[in-house]
Amino acid sequence: MPQGAYRGAGGIATIKVSNLLVCRPDLSPAVADALTRLLIQRAGALVPEPVVGTQYLDVRGLIGTGRVPLHPGAARAYRSLHG
What we know:
Layout: H1 29-41, H2 43-46, H3 72-82
Helix pairs in contact: 1-3
């Protein structure tokens, strides 16, 4: 991240920046489950060819949401696929 990119933040080197797909708490657990399964099972197909190697969907990173809790449907899908 270059110096001055964000007000009050100095420049720092990064190795990964996470993006969160955020939903409303009342999203159907079945929909959250299905979407999570899609992201996990099709991760390789969802990264555009020009950015392969610089961007990726790492299945381990799908649960790295910091302080944002996983939707119960997403947590259920991840547990059923990865224990």
